[in-house]
Amino acid sequence: MPLPAQLPKPQWPEHARLLRFGRFCLDRDHRRLLRDGEPIELPARAFEVLQLLVASPHQLLTREAIFDAVWKDTIVEDANLTQVVWVLRRAFGDDAKSYIRTVARRGYVFEPPDPVVAETAAPSLRLASDAAPNEPPVVPVRAANARRYLLGAALLASALVLAAAVWYRLASPATSSSVVIVETRDADDDEGAQNASALLHDWLRWKLGVLHQIDVADGGTAPAAGERTQRVILLSTSRTATGSEWQLDARVFGAGDTRHYTLVGADLRKIDALDAFSRRVAAVVAPEAEDDLALGLTAEAAEHYAAANRAWMRGDRATQIAQLRLAQQKAPSAGWLRVQTADVLAELGQIRAANVEVERNADWTAALPPTARALLDARRLAFAQRSREAAAAYVDLARRYPHMAGLRLDQAEALVLDQRLSESAEALDTIDVGALSVDQRIRWLKLRTTYLYYQESPRAAQAAYRKIAELAGDSPRLALPRAVAEGNALAIEIEEQGAAAGADRVAALEAAADRVAAAGDPIEAAKLRVRAALATSDAGSERVAQRVGILLALTRANGDVARELWALWVDAIAQGRSGRIAEQRATLLQAEAVAKANDNLAGTRDAAKFLGQEALRAGRYDEAERRFVSVRGVLLAPQIGLGLAALYTAQGRYEEAERATEDANRVSRQAQAQSAQSAAGKVGIDCWLGTVRLARAQIDQAQALFANCATQSSPAIALQGRLGLAQVAAISGSREQAREQARALVADIAALTDTLQRMDLYARAAQVLVDANDMAAADKALDGVVAFANRNGLAPLEARARSAAMQIALARGNDEDALADYAAADAVLPASDWRTRSRLDTLRAIAYRNAGEAAEANRLLDSIVDGARSRGDVVAELSALSIDDRDEAYARRTAQTGARGTSLRDLLRTGGKPR
Length: 915
Known about the structure:
Blueprint: E1 18-21, E2 24-27, E3 32-35, E4 38-41, H1 44-55, E5 60-62, H2 63-70, H3 78-92, H4 96-99, E6 100-103, E7 107-110, E8 117-119, H5 157-170, E9 178-184, H6 191-211, E10 215-218, E11 231-239, E12 246-254, E13 257-264, H7 271-285, H8 299-313, H9 317-330, H10 335-347, H11 351-360, H12 362-366, H13 370-383, H14 387-400, H15 405-417, H16 421-429, H17 438-454, H18 458-472, H19 479-497, H20 503-518, H21 522-536, H22 542-558, H23 561-577, H24 581-597, H25 601-618, H26 621-631, H27 638-650, H28 654-672, H29 679-682, H30 685-695, H31 699-710, H32 715-731, H33 735-749, H34 755-771, H35 775-781, H36 785-791, H37 795-811, H38 815-828, H39 834-850, H40 854-871, H41 874-882, H42 887-897
Parallel strand pairs: 9-10, 9-11
Antiparallel strand pairs: 1-2, 1-8, 2-3, 3-4, 5-7, 6-7, 11-12, 12-13
Helix pairs in contact: 1-3, 3-5, 6-7, 8-9, 9-10, 10-11, 13-14, 14-15, 15-16, 15-17, 16-17, 17-18, 18-19, 19-20, 19-21, 20-21, 21-22, 22-23, 23-24, 24-25, 25-26, 25-27, 26-27, 27-28, 27-30, 28-30, 30-31, 30-32, 31-32, 32-33, 32-34, 33-34, 34-35, 34-37, 36-37, 37-38, 37-39, 38-39, 39-40, 40-41, ...
């Protein structure tokens, strides 16, 4: 049996009766707190906890030590202590944050701004009643019945009642614009009483928020302590005085008034009685609630609803949906159930199914009051992914009801879905974050994080996740978002560090996944485990495949389309990195089919992005452009602009490539203020822009852009930057420098685990080595590239590799081999690929010259020069001119541009003279 946790020794003498700190005085005799001389009575448990904290300022009191001292021999939930601390912070008011600091998952530290002063004199002010508040005795219960997900316990109810009553007696008058609902249940409560309390909580929350436009927060997550305009509705279950029946109590505090309502015995299972009870409770906050529409459930439907809640608590979303649908069958006229079902389906990414529920609910929605109908209509537009209209609807509602911060969050979310990221950020900036409840602040940060991910700003996203974990604190109700945020922050850190990430950090991520699973979300835990595997294994490893398989099985079993798509994207990326290109395409097409089958527009857009990249690599340029253009300006991810830039560069459409690169740059620039790292360099934008500038022989600009890429933390992007610098050296005529840089580059490319990136960089490095006249090193770099590209249908990569091989063959006098490489490349390369084809044709012209076929060579060279000039491709023009007889033109252009390393004349053999 574990020993009781030890408390620090009190820092004041036992005979001290008053303990003063700042504006406050703790009166030990009368068990009360004074603020500026005004009494604040505290419940017994709250007073005992505060006394422990004041006894040991600036020292950590663990949760275990507090439980042993205050709830000795009693089995209670963590939520009991959390709720007591919430009561104390309310009592401290505006100064709460500076007095009680939470140490996540460990305990609390009392940090008064001034030293605690002990006195023996009695206080000058005495209350009318000095007796300690009555608190019913707590009967110890068996630990086997404790369930950690329950919020609080019945033994805490009287404490919260007294604290809330005192708080509102001291606070400024409450308005009817906001409500905090606190629900407490004991682990041994009757299941029927628990179900009634949960149903009442959900029904009150929905109808106060939707029917009466009141901002509703749950207890323990209410706005900062200084915000005292909320009313409090306290729901608790307990046995009656005789112990023969169970009762549900609802107490409403605020505006100088307290109301108490009780539902007893068999009425707990009567839906009509519970509905009437909800009207009386809601009418205290919103008098017109007496005329609210009926709940409309049957007893059987209520049982299924309770089963759905239990399934949700254990992370079983498939059962949750099934139980909600069974509840609908038992109560077909209960439109509220369809609203709940649609919300769950939309959250899971089953957009088509969510819209079906909305359409079936049209008649019920039409009968609602106009404002409630407007709220649901805005949600309907969001479900239908008419995001622009939804955002406008939420803007209008937010103007009409400025106190409902949730509407601004809904507006920001709709704007994110519509890819209007700057407007979304502006909407978030208009929200007074300090006035939000904790769960609303977490949602605010999640939207910020989504924005940052779109902007490719991982460090800022990591900071946002850490802030979410900090906000969640040690609240049991927020254990899941805290665990998920901690896991995501760790995953980003490890992904940023790459191979440098230590085993301890990966172990910490695995532990975070375990906490997420324990908090009730096995799917999110499986996601984190996939990310841990990717950080420590080759993308094609069995461990990664196994974990992705587990994740896919979980998502499909739960009908979680949104996270199924995430798993498919990760699977496809892993397949590409390991060189399984055919499998990758099949997975991407499968993901597209899943997204379309569920009318999931976000998934369909992501599919267009990924399939566009796949088509580009395969040389299906028309398909690639169609897919990219379909989401250009809609899906604001830098990869869209980069994909188009790569396509247009390959086709020699350099002006369009620059515009596409600027599109990507514009998206990323929005995040640079959020990240210590250059967003443009991070996603390789400067590398592509440098490639365009180099083709146009704008050498100084290209060099600066490549230098920026070369300093990035991403190994692949840094290698691309170094490759660009080697190309600059080669084209500038510094062959020795280019050779040294390219050789070092080839050695480092081998460390890349992404097979696609590795093969692409090998082919590009080989071309630099060829231009630097290092044929042996180039030959070695090309080893396996042609076979890999051919096997996987990567036509542009195969053609680039064969172009380098063709130049090697010409340098060695093997013209037949060179022409064979040309024929193989020509057979697979798209006709519109100007960049590679112009190089191949220039080399073919050399072979023709060497064979004495001057006329055919001249025809090719004239065509290349004309095409290069029309496109502004100076390098292609100079390469063609270097083997023609236009020496003056070549010399003039070389002098203008400084591109002295573009000549291919040394590939001409004796007899193969220029015309």
